[in-house]
Structures are given as structure tokens and as C-alpha cells.
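Exercise 7. Predict the joint structure of the components listed below.
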Amino acid sequence: MFRFLLKRLLLTLPTFFALMFVTFIMIRLVPGDPIEVRRGERGISPERLEELRREMGLDQPVWKQFGDYVWGILHGDFGTSIISKTPILHEFATLFPATLELTISAMIFAVVLGIPAGVIAASRRGGVYDQSLMGLALTGYSMPIFWWGLILILVMSNTLGLTPVSGRVDLIKFYYEPVTGFMLIDSLLSGQKGAFWDAVHHLILPTIVLGTVPLAVIARMTRSSMLEVLEEDYVRTARAKGLSTYRIIGVHALRNALIPVVTVIGLQTGGLLAGAVLTETIFSWPGVGKWLVESIGRRDYPALQGGILLISAMVIFVNLIVDLLYGLINPRIRHAK
Amino acid sequence: MKFKTLFGAALLASTMLVAGAANAKTLVYCSEGSPENFSPSMNTTGTSLDAARPVYNKLVQFTPGTTQVEPGLAESYAVSDDGKTITFKLRSGVKFHSGVNGFTPTRDLNADDVIWSFERMWKAEHPYAKVSGGSYDYFNDMSMPDLLASIEKGADDLTVVMKLNKPNAPILANLAMDFATIHSAEYAKFLMDKGAPEEFDQIPVGTGSFSFVAYQKDAVIRYKAFDGWAGKPKIDDLVYAITPDATARYAKLQANECQVMGYPNPADLAAMKQNADIRVLELAGLNIGYLAMNAQKPPFDKVEVRQAIAMAIDRDAILSEVYQGAGQKAKNPIPPTMWSYDESTVDYEYNPEKAKEMLKAAGVENLSTDIWWMPVQRPYNPNAKRMAEMMQADLAKVGINATLVSYEWGEYRKRLQAGEHQMGLLGWTGDNGDPDNFLAVLLGCNSEGKPNGQNIPKWCDADFNAAVTKAVEITDQAERTKLYQQAQKIHHAQVPWLNIAHSTVFEPIRKEVQGYKVSPLGAHEFQNVDIAE
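Solution:
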């Protein structure tokens, strides 16, 4: 296990370096620079522009800038945001818990509903349940996120008054300083009555919106994987042995069918960590996705470079966990060898 | 017994606290983004300036809802006869916020704070000059380094004497702008001694109506009412709920999760006006959207051609399709809410036939030209591409073939300023309500007759330039008005740019909100706001 982990970690090093390089080059290929883009109608004198470029190190040759950047990273320095002048690591650490909380919540929502839906659909192949569940899954998969979010706000918040519109906490009723950055935990730590339920309430709509696509993908994947497994000889054997359908599906088939599903869960989780931009925008969720997109608009090179690198680290970490999970689900996969 | 007493006291205290909290009046403003920092001297975006404004004051300030300058931290000021010395008398007993970031002020505001604040932007050797990047764009843009000769303490601790290199009438309006905010020199020293000077721009301490409580990036900014020199605000807590999406802001306003919102989506305005819980306040914006014609490139060097273009473009159609009712047709380069606006201007009518004749008379036939459009939405132009397309179609009717051109925003502006265009769309939002900020900045030329950087039509007219130059040097507003009206007449006759529109600013608020005023300068201010029970 240790050797497997070490090998996987070493394999990520070239990935990181390639990422650093590609991000660094790509952002510089986008027209416009961080100083000019902020100046609007006023513009800036060439002398002042030169002075500011010099102060930010942007006047240096690109290879030198890249070298300095890599050197900084190796020393744990991800740079400072050009816009807010705050260390990137600090900005990331402030925003990432919100993203993680929402991602975990959305994935729990997707897994808890998606796997049973897929299993039911597979065990009643071609029936009404199968048709309607898969129809719903297709709808969910093709739902435009922005539209879905706004419709939910309109119906659930504005019309029915069941959920708050956006944000993470009722700003009038509650005030507590973030300790962990996870609102569910911080609300409990605050000791304020009702704060936890308020935080849960705020999490409902973003969870549904962000979890809809993974839910659809997981349901469809579980179904097709289950259908494949149900054709296997050992399932036939189990049936012949007279095992109950519940036991055949729930224990024998599902465990084997889950391998590709876990892969999909890993990939989806990775996608959500960086790709929740629309959900974050609609629900004013202070996460890293929106931060990265804004950094592109502002040409905030350090924020973008550092942010992408840190997100990638998280995605690689999630994938590593998925690899480890294979072994737990199916002991035949042995990492150590 | 002792325990019981203590427990009882704690219970009473907590009950009072809860009761206090329940009675506290909180106003939530749905803002559109996170500030870059909390020092107005370093910011140029409305979002950042809005976030710092509750905390700070300036020597002079704009009367809410207007561009009139009134006393702020200076209770009075006097300008010398030669216009080169301004003496400010500071209010006495002005307190700074206490308890923010562990700082407790030991003294009231005095001249040292004023001098410290200006010198930070002005003098490279100032201990805070380079802190947080040290870029003071507005101070430089308003030509303060050229204008200022000295800022010194006067006869006493509450007198500040500002000396100028030359008389400058708009300087008081400049000093009412956010960049001229007065900071606490004592707080700066406190942080320097603590070894954390960068906190100065992240955790603000000022004299304003609200003291800073907390900021969470992309989520919320909290302030609490401060009983300072201007009196205690009517609300107890002010909260900025950072809500980047305009539709989500409106949904929050409907759900009473916020009571004031900025920058509504134009498509939502009709529904907002129908909503009984919401009032939509509106004000003519202090801005201008225009089509510049490059007077240094033929055939736009001929005034007849520029006039013909003015008559060839159907601006009423643009107003209805591009602005969708959220703008008014412009006949002067300054907005009608600005003093010195020339009411007597008779606008060019839409007359393509006459335009054709004028072009023919000017010897212009089968002209191929370009129209540049900016790739971003601006307050004065909600859709430059559509506007350019409409203009292209109008010009085709008079025999002009125009190609549409655009670049990335920074690149676009740079190339326009370099004069690469023949015709280009741009505009301006006023900074300080002074006509100089439009007429001289956008259409002025230097002493050698070369257009200023912001002069996009690249047009220099000696009479126009003489009028706007002279108007800066005299303080009598009636005299200045005459000069600016003369300049507007020259602009109308010469048409260096075609005035298109002044957009309207809309601000939806909950009906319970009282005393909120829309600022023509785009500021969002809450010191006089109340919420009806």
C-alpha cells in the first residue's frame, strides 16, 4: 500500500509541472494585461504602465518569470494576487471550504439518490420505473444549470418561501466568525440557536442544482453497470442456489457493479471542485470556481496559476482516494503488487 | 448564593443582548462583488469604493443625491484671492472608530491625519507609499501631483493649508472624491509598529458613520453604526451581501433578504415596477455615450462630413432598441443634470436625404470606413455591438460602407487613444460633477495643440480649448458656466463626436426603506437611511 501511494504521488509530479507550464503560458496568451484591463476608459500613460509592469515583474522575460514562479512554488510561495494583494494561499484557504462543503453535499445527494435509482431501473429493465427514471436522468443531465438554479429560486424561495434565495447564512439573524470555513460546522461551533438549521437550509438549493448532473450520470452508470453484472454467470449461479433477489442484487451484483460507478463519482467530484462556477454565481456561494473565472477576467495571473494548481492537487487527491477505494470494494484489485 | 447571583446576572445580560439584537435595525445591501481592498486611494472600481465609503470621510463631500460639494471633516474652507491657497478648518472632537483590529485611538482627528493621507499618495518616501502595491490611480488621473505645491499644518492642529501651483476651480470637487479619504495616521503607526502595515488596507479605521466589523471574501461585509461627528445613523447594522448575479439580487430583494440592490438587470425593471413591495428609484446618469469621428483622418477632418454623419444616424431607434427606455438622447457632451448644461442647443435631426446631399457637397462618395465597438457592457452603453450594427445599416443608406471593428477591452481603448480608428464608440462616467471632468478631460488639447490622451476624436479647436482652459482658473461659477456653454456651442457646431445618450441609473429598494438617495456619481450611501417598522 505504501509503495503504491508513493508511486502514485511521484507520478503526479510531471502532471503538476505540465500544469504549471500550461497555465502559465495560456493565461499570457490571452490578450490584455492585468494593469490595462483595470483601467477602463481612462487608460494609462506608457511611462506609468512601464513602471507598474516593472513593479509586478511583468517586464522580465517570460522564461525568467516562469523560473521565479516555479522557485516560489517549491518554497511554498504561490504568489500574491495582483488585485487584492493578498497571498494566493490565503485566498484559496478562505474560499475552498465553501466549495468543498457544497461539493460533498452535492455528491452525497447524487450518490444517495443516484445509486438506488440505477439499481431499481436495472432490476426492472424496460419497465415503467426504468423508463421514467432514465427519462428523468436524461432530463437532469441536459438541464442548463443557470436556468435550473433560477427556476428553483423562483419556485422554492420566491413563490413558496421554503428556502432562502442565496448565500450561506441568514445575515440578519446570525453572525459568527468562520472558524473552519464549513458553515455546517461553524454554525454548531457558534452555539447560536437555529444557526445549524439555517446553514442546512441555505445548502439545499445549491446542493440540488450542483448535484443534478452527477445524480443523472451516476444513475445511468449504475444502471448500465448493473445490467452487465446481472448477466454474469455467478449471478445465475446465485439465482440457481435460490438466493433472494435482494441478496443477489444488493450484495453480489451491486458490489461488482460499483467499480465503474466509483470511477465516475471520482471524476464528477473532481469536476465539481473547480467547475461549480454557475452554481456559485447564482447562489452567491463564495467558492473557488467563481474566484478563478473572475481571475481570468481580471488577468490576475498569480491567482489563476496558483488557484489552478491547488485545485489540481485536490482533484489528484480525490482520484487517489478513488483508486484506494477500488481495493476496498473489490479485494481482487491489489495495489501493492 | 454567589453562583446564583452570577448566573442571574449572566442570564439578564444575555436576555438584554438577545432583546437588543432583536430590536437592532439591520439593512442589507445586495452588492455586486468583492472589494479589492478598503483603501479608496488605491481603487477605481465602484464596487471597492462603495465598500470603503461607510467607514471614511473626506475634507469635503458631495451632498447625498447631488454633485454639490459641502463641508465634511473640514467645517469650513477658504480660497485665497489668487485661487492658489485653500485653508481648511477641521471640525474639533472628530473621533476615529475604536476597537477595530485591536486599535484604540488616543486622540481626535487633526491636521496630521490629513497631511498623512495626501502624502501617502503623493510622496514616494512616505512609509506607506508602497504598502499594498502603492498605486494611486485617481490621485494621478486628477492631476493632483501637478496641482499640489504643498500641504501643511496651519495656525493650529485643526488647520490645514493646501497650496496649489496654479488656480484650479474643480479642486474642491476633486477633494470630495473617494480617493481623497482621510485616514488615521495613528492607526497607520500602530500597524507599522505591529509589523502588519498591509492590514491598513484590509481592516479600515476611519471617522465615517459605520465602523468596520468583518469581511468574508465573496460573501459578506459587515459594519456597525458609529456615533461620530455626523451623528448616529438610524440603522444599527449595515450588511453588504455580495451577490454577483443581477437576477439573484432581485430574487433576494423580493424575499426581503436584502433591502437595497445595485445594478438591476434591465430586463427585470418592468416586473420590479409592478411589484408592490419594491420601489424603483431612477436618476439620469452622469455619463455620455458617443461616437467619436477621428478629426485627424480624412474625410472626418471636414466638419460637413461629421455633421452629415450626425444626421445619417437614427438615434431614436438606438435609444429604443439598445437602451430600451433606460436612457435619454444626448444633445450636449455633458449630461443635463450637470451645471452649465446648455439647454439652447438644437439637436441634429435624423435626415438621411440631407446627409447624402452634404456628403456629396463635401466631395465624399462611396466612402469605406470603420466603426469600432467596445467588447464590454458599460454604464453609458449597454450593447455597443448592436449599436454599431444599427449605425452601419444607417450609414449604408447614405452610401457609406462601414466595417465593424473590435478588440479586447484594454487593447481597444489603447488603440482608440492612439487614434487608429476612423469612427469609434466610447463614453464616460463623471467623477466629480464638474464640467471640466467632461469637456477638458475628454475634448481638451495641450498647449502645443495636441489632443489629450482621452481625446478620442483627436480634435483640437483653439476657441474650445481656450474656453475650457480659462474656466478651470476662475472660481466664479456664473463665469465658468458662460465659458462651458460657449464650449458646448462649439462642440455642437463642430461635432467631433456624435452625442448618443445619457443612460438612466435605476436602483430598486424595498418599500420599507426610507431616506435612500440615488447618487448621480454612482455611489451607494447609507448614512441617512432608515427602515420603517
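Discussion. Chain A touches chain B through 49 residues (CB under 8 Å).
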